[in-house]
Structure prediction request, 450 residues.
Amino acid sequence: MDSQGEYVLRTVEERGIRFVQLWFTDVLGTPKTFSITPAELENALEEGMTFDGSAIDGFSRVQESDVLARPDATTFQLLPWHGTGGREPDGAPVARVFCDIFDLDGTPFQGCPRHVLRRTLGRARDAGLTFFAAPEIEFFYFEDSDASRPPRGLDSGSYFELTAADRASTIRQQTVLTLEEMGIPVEHAQHEDAPSQHEIDLRYTDALTMADTVMTVRQVVKELARQQGVHASFMPKPLAGVQGSGMHTHLSLFRGEENAFVEPGAPHGLSELARQFIAGLLHHAGEITAITNQWVNSYKRLVAGYEAPVHVSWAHNNRSALVRVPVVKASKPESTRIEYRAPDSACNPYLAFAVILAAGLEGITKGYDLPGEARANLFDLTPEDLAAEGIVHLPASLDEALSAMSRSELVATTLGDHVFEWFLRNKRAEWSAYTSQVTPFELDRYLPLL
Ligand code: GLU
Ligand code: MG
Prediction:
């Protein structure tokens, strides 16, 4: 047993923890869990716990169904909230730990998203690089999740609204305090542009820790809302006519203690490596969009006129661009980073960070040239202007995104055959279910007329 494992066993005993939840995610980023008692924990830490993987969508096939969940002891954490899942009825605390999934022969299980990210981070590490991510997670609070009528928000605030203790802001503040209690540093939290839309920005960490953190944050946001009788939603575009919920992610590569994106005196302070990374992201953006924006509804957010990207382009301080290079304080060159604005809050963060990194690394390996910066607000340009500047569209629908992904060597290699093929199959079925619907839009528009 390593020292981290011993720490977990000691804490469980000292704190009187009765259950430890083993957390992992399926291919679509849905959180999954099963609980074990402290009596099982030592064995779980040393050998892993077997479970029937075929019960989880996208995991094993029926004929080879058993897999092994091995806790990553470094992620052990007490769940700080009271109520379902956080504490037993008599007040005993509950803890959780993230797991890596293995086949019974001890090889990493190919359907495990955490493994997909680990493998891609390994490629960066082989080049001496560590990948850091800092997402801005946007979401809505609604009265309930009743889908039979339009969702009703809790407030009518807007950007950075400073409201007198309204319900939504109070829940958001409690959420931030709970995250801090769990050791998750929040850079800031604010009311977002749309009514009842909120945002929590996380301080950067390595991408594996951050993917776990995104899973935890979604869980905490939902749980604390639920305790107040409210529904928190990460749906990318729950309301037509107002902003959707994105997960813009700030990215950087470090070599040891040094930020490898920094070059003092260069345009925007960006190193050649950073420029190639952006070029890789732009070059492969269409191919990775199905992963960063994985739902039919994701493409209702990626439309012109809001602050979500529609075109493949980069710029500093232009919020219509796909990649933004934020201006950093002169005294803080080490915070040089780029912001990828396509992902939404309902992506699988493990897979999203993996394909984003793979695209950037491809730019570095192949030495891609960075195209010119977009100067105008891209939404003001005509299709002819865009064509003249060589600016292409991001996929406009899940269908387009899946076509681009299905042709991508880069995405196939990054995800591995198992996840790549399962994802395409599952998402094509979603698209086909969607296209066979007759929507309220069509009835409103056509029934009186046709
Ligand atoms: N909600 C916008 C989006 O869907 C982003 C707003 C912002 O710039 O923070 O990407
Ligand atoms: Mg925002």
Summary: The mean pLDDT is 92.
